[in-house]
Amino acid sequence: MECLKLYLVIPCYNEQEVLPITAQKIREKMQALQQRGKITADSKVVFVDDGSKDKTWELICALHKADKLFRGIKLAHNKGHQNALLAGMMTVRAECDAIISMDADLQDDINAIDEMIERCYEGCDIVYGVRCARDKDTAFKRGTAHGFYKVMKWLGVEIVNDHADYRLMTKRALAALADFDEVNLFLRGLVPLLGFKTATVEYERGERAAGESKYPLKKMIAFAMEGITSMSVKPIRLVTVLGFLIFAVSIIMLLYSLIRHLIGATVTGWTSTVVSIWAIGGLQLLAIGVIGEYIGKIYLETKHRPKYTVEEYLK
Ligand code: UDP
Ligand code: MG
Fold it and tell me: Collapsing DSSP states into helix, strand and coil, what is residue 307?
């Protein structure tokens, strides 16, 4: 590769507080990289406005007007971080050699970009940014995240620990990603499925430069559920295992009741009857819920609705 034509893709949802700071920092970074001849002069920074309700799009337009380094993609509605990221990457992938995706809040240390580019020059098609220290995150976020990685591994999903969506992907890796047209999108699980030569680059996760998190607990849980159910069918198997276990218990209960009957002590047993009604009823609902979750996923996949709609692309 001669000189890398690099695009940064940054999804933004109601980021008016942080956007000016981010733009400034990133411009300096891009200029430094250009001066050192690491990236071409026509490399770009693409902000994807994920249907923000504040002044984010106006800010992006102003940035674009002042400096052609910045580009903007406006989505027609709020589709969530994963879809916004995909929208950005798929819209620009034909124009560049590689894309680095990152968050708008500067929590991903932009100095890791240098090393990502080096790995790319060494022939890696995917370079994961991995947080080496998470002390800036709350203990709760750290704990839940690590628990989530464990569950994912146990369910047989290949996932890179402590990697969010800060990563470099080359053109051909992006082309491979484009072939996955699932609606239930969990990029962190999909990208490792692509194969290719990969590397990881460590960085320290900082604090949000301004504004507040756009991922409240509710969205975090929904995202984790999406990750599990879109990548693994093991929960359905667990339901089957549960069925077998309960069947085994029922045989024991059958023997127990027969023996009680034969020795003539059959009137007691109210507690065990009531408990089993509730226990089995609860488990059945749980099982139906798990299966329903997958049927819901199939329903959404079969509709093949577009994952995002690009309203405007400021070139
Ligand atoms: N984001 C988005 N759409 C959404 C929610 C978030 O594009 O519906 C973007 C947001 O602007 C940011 C990134 O996703 O660039 C990560 O969000 P945030 O920093 O709030 O998450 P956290 O770091 O708290 O997990
Ligand atoms: Mg953040």
Answer: coil
Side chain identity at 129, as an amino acid letter? G
> Nearest Cα to 49, choosing from 90, 19, 84, 18?
84
Mutate to test the pocket of ligand 1, among 13, 108, 218 (most ligand atoms within 8 A of CB): 13
- Predicted structure pTM score: 0.86
Strand ranges across the sheet with 98-101: 198-204, 126-133, 163-170, 98-101, 6-12, 44-49, 70-75, 310-314
How long is the chain? Answer: 315
Alpha-carbon separation of residue 218 from 176, 214, 215, 221, 222 (angstroms)? 31, 11, 8, 5, 6
- Contact between 123 and 66 under an 8 Å Cβ cutoff? The reply is no
CA distance 94 to 172: 10
Distance 242 CA to ligand 2 centre (A): 38
Instruction: Report the separation in Å between the CA atom of 81 and the middle of ligand 1, taken as the mean of its atom positions.
Output: 6
pLDDT the model gives residue 254: 84
- Two structure tokens written together for 260: 């009680």
Ligand 1 pocket, Cβ-based, cut-off 6 angstroms:
11-13, 15, 50, 78, 80-81, 84, 103-105, 107, 213-215
Task: Tell me the pLDDT tens digit for each residue of 232-245.
Answer: 888 888 888 888 88
What is residue 199's DSSP assignment? E
